[in-house]
Amino acid sequence: MAHAGALLFLAWAAGCGGNLRAAAAPSVVQCDSIPSKILNRPVGYCIDLPADYASTVPRRYPTLYFLHGLFDNDHRWADRGAKAVFDRLTADGTIGKFIVVLPDAGETFYINSEDGQDRYEDFFIQELVPFIDQHYRTIATKEARGISGLSMGGYGALHLAMRHSDLFGAVTATSAVLITGFPNPIPTEGRWRFYSRILGHAFGSPLNQAYWEANSPLTLARHPEKFQGLKIYFDVGDHDRYGFEKGAAILDGILNKENYPHTYALRPGGHGWEFLDQYMQYSLSFQWQGFQKAGQASTSSAEAGTH
After folding, report:
1. Domain span at residue 188?
2. What does the pLDDT profile of the chain (307 residues) look like in tens digits?
3. Are β-strands 145-150 and 41-49 bridged in parallel, bridged antiparallel, or unpaired?
C-alpha cells in the first residue's frame, strides 16, 4: 500500500503536466489572521498561492515559510519585490509551484521572549504550521516543507529549522542576524542604545547575553546531531551594513568543523530587500531542489509499495 506522503506528492505532481514554463500567470497573495491561544491575540499572515490554486483541486503543494526582517511585516514580500522575482522564476521554469506562507512576527526574532510573555516560537510550531496544513492544500511532510528568511527572519529561519528539524526539510537564510554576543558593558549611547531597545523585546531588558547565546544559530549549529538531514543554505553581502558577513563566516566555520553539509555564499552587495531580490533565485532554487527530491523519493516509495 502506498505511503500517505507519497499519495500527497502524486496528487501534487499530477497537476504539473510536465510543463512548468506554460504557467506564466502570477501567483495570488491573500492576507488574513489566525487566532492564537498561545499569544492571546490574532496574528496576521499573508499566503502566496499558485495562480491556478483554486482550479487544481485536489492537487497539493510544497510549502515555504518566509520570515520577514525587523521593522517589516507579512505584506513586505509583495511590497518589496520578492513576489515579482518569485513569479518570474516560476514562469521561466527555474522553480516549480509551491505555496509561500508569510507570517507577521513584529520584533520577536521568532523565538519565545526571555520574559515568557511572547511565546512566538510556540505559536509558530504548535499553531501556525498545523493551521496552514489544515486550511490549505499543503503536502504535510517535512520533506515538502521549507523555511527561509531575511535578516531577523534569517535568524528565525535557522533557529526554527535547527530546533525543529522534524518539521522542516530545508532552511535558507539571507543576511541573517548572526553576532557572537554583546559588548560588556553594553554602551548606553549610539548604535548599541538603539540595538538594546529593539532586541529587548525578545532577549530581555537589560539584554540577557546567556539567553541570546542559547537561542543563537551559532550555538545550535554546534549540535548537528539534533538536526541531522536538514538541508542548509545561507548567503550574505560582502558589504552588509551591519557586518553580518562576519557571523555568516563563523557559522560556515562551525558547520565545516562539524563536517555538516551545507551551502554558504558570500556575494557582492549590502543588506536588505535589494540584496534579497538580486540573489533570491539561489535560495528559492535550493528549496525547490529539496521539494523535487522529496517528490522523487515519495514516488519511488509509492511504486515500491504498489502490489
Report:
1. 182-215
2. 444 454 444 444 444 444 444 446 899 999 999 999 999 999 999 999 999 999 999 999 999 999 999 989 899 899 899 999 999 999 999 999 999 999 999 999 999 999 999 999 999 999 999 999 999 999 999 999 999 999 999 999 999 999 999 999 999 999 999 988 777 787 777 777 777 888 989 999 889 999 999 999 999 999 999 999 999 999 999 999 989 999 999 999 999 999 999 999 999 999 999 999 999 999 999 999 999 977 654 433 333 333 3
3. unpaired
H or E segment and range at residue 231? strand 231-237
For the record, the C-alpha cell of 206 comes out as: 537589560
Q: Looking only at Cα atoms, what is the longest distance across the chain?
A: 71
- Number of structural domains, the chain? 2
Distance between CA atoms of residues 178 and 154, nearest Å:
9
Instruction: Give the helix ranges, DSSP H, for the chain.
Output: 4-14, 76-79, 82-91, 120-123, 129-135, 152-163, 191-203, 209-215, 217-220, 244-257, 273-305
Kindly state the cell numbers that stand for 115. Answer: 520574559
Based on the fold, state whether residues 71 and 210 are members of the same structural domain.
Answer: no
Q: In terms of DSSP bridges, do strands 170-174 and 145-150 run parallel, antiparallel, or are they unpaired?
A: parallel
User: Of 3, 123, 136, 150, whose CA–CA distance to 68 is shortest?
Assistant: 150
Q: In terms of domains, do 206 and 160 share one?
A: no
